[in-house]
UniProtKB/TrEMBL annotation:
It is found in: Endoplasmic reticulum membrane. GO terms for molecular function: dolichyl pyrophosphate Man9GlcNAc2 alpha-1,3-glucosyltransferase activity. This is Alpha-1,3-glucosyltransferase. Keywords: Endoplasmic reticulum, Glycosyltransferase, Membrane, Signal, Transferase, Transmembrane, Transmembrane helix. Its main location: endoplasmic reticulum.
Amino acid sequence: MEKWSLMTITVLLALTVRWTVSLGSYSGAGKPPMYGDYEAQRHWQEVTYNLPVRQWYFNTSDNNLLYWGLDYPPLTAYHSFLCAYIAKLINPDWIALHTSRGYESQPHKLFMRTTVFVADLLIYIPAVILYCFSLKETSTKKKASICALCILLYPGLILIDHGHFQYPLSLGFALWALLCLSYEWDLLGAVAFCLALNYKQMELYHSLPFFCYLLGKCFKKGLKGKGLVLLTKLAGTVVVSFAVCWLPFCTDMAQIMQVLRRLFPIDRGLFEACMFSSPPPRSTCSDKVANIWCSLSVLIKIKNVVSPQTQLKLSFAVTFLSLLPTCIKLTVQPSLRAFKFALVSCALSFFLFSFQVHEKSILLVSVPVCLILNEIPFMATWFLLVSTFSMLPLLLKDGLLLPYAVMMLAFLSVCVAAFSIFEKTSAEDLQLKPFSLSLKGYVSWFKSFPKIVRSLFLLSLTLMGVLSLASAAVPPPQRLPDLFPVSVSVISCLHFLLFLVYFNVVILWDSKNRSQKKIS
């Protein structure tokens, strides 16, 4: 009884925070002609309800793809249709074809916010709770509740889902997939991840760890016996799951190809939301992404020097090489712990080096980091703060400065109180002991390592605090209008590069044979 009372308080607190954030502004509120992501989600409801399936992804007189054309997989479209069906029952004007464009009212805002709230409550939050109870390190009821509270109070996801406006379903499905794998329900895990991938194509960030982990399990069981049976079952499960999701589009190859073109718009080039300018011409977009290509474009105008096709090849090559060591290690030595760290490392590689990255995509790295918060609380807390900070220009644009500041401070305070993070900075606490031992003659340097790491953390916090204040309160120089967004992007990118090195070191130098956690 005590277990559920503690968890009930945790969930109620998490829901209260979410609802409080949702009372504020949202993406593109009162900003015609395109408005923002809120209008995109509403428009998809309008399109999916009023048009036949065969027109959802095609440019027609009733479906102008230049105005928030549907560019997510079929499961997103089906979810939009479900929301639209309910909206139609409440007020048909919300999804009326053409005339509802840019619709804004308090009742409609309440409806849209509620759909996100319900999705969070039904999919994401239950997965977090069950995950925390499944952890060996959180065997006591109190520890499980504290771990769940820290994960559910992660500012980045709350500010984007309930502030900016986005649904947490793909990340929720991915978390359910990991939870199924931890119970060794591999086929259910495969179904859950297929749902995640068919809701948002960005779940490709997590696809290689899932593939390598399950393939490694098949190899371990032997490809001439149980391993082959498991591999066949997994392949069949994936094919059937995709076939069901794509069934309405499988009647015509042109439909399939058009959906794929909408999902992967390679003609747009390496990036489109980070055209930095040094000095005069003002940048054409205010969204800056903290990945390597956007940061490098401050010095080198990559889009002007390299053709789109070469950009695609370069991006693919660098991304593939950066995640290859982790994938090989996971395939050869599959374990649940290695799988969780691989989710972090591979997603971060995709974010830093892949094609057409959005600043919100850092959430695909942050959620796996939340899952190892109990194992490396210091580094995980640091990363989660930086990931939220990296989205600061977007959050400021949406009028979310106050929720951002309050939630960042609250999250840091909760993590410090729950995990005593400043006391867990030794090489062993940071999972770096195998690496430090491999340095042999340089091991003595690690004696001062905890002090160095704590100093860097405090320096990082100070830098993020100063830049947050400057971005919100100080007018930029006239010749450098994008100074603060670019600074946030570049500094965040440098952090992420260091985190990528750290996570890869932890994975590659983990020589212990850790058995997968069994859950009774």
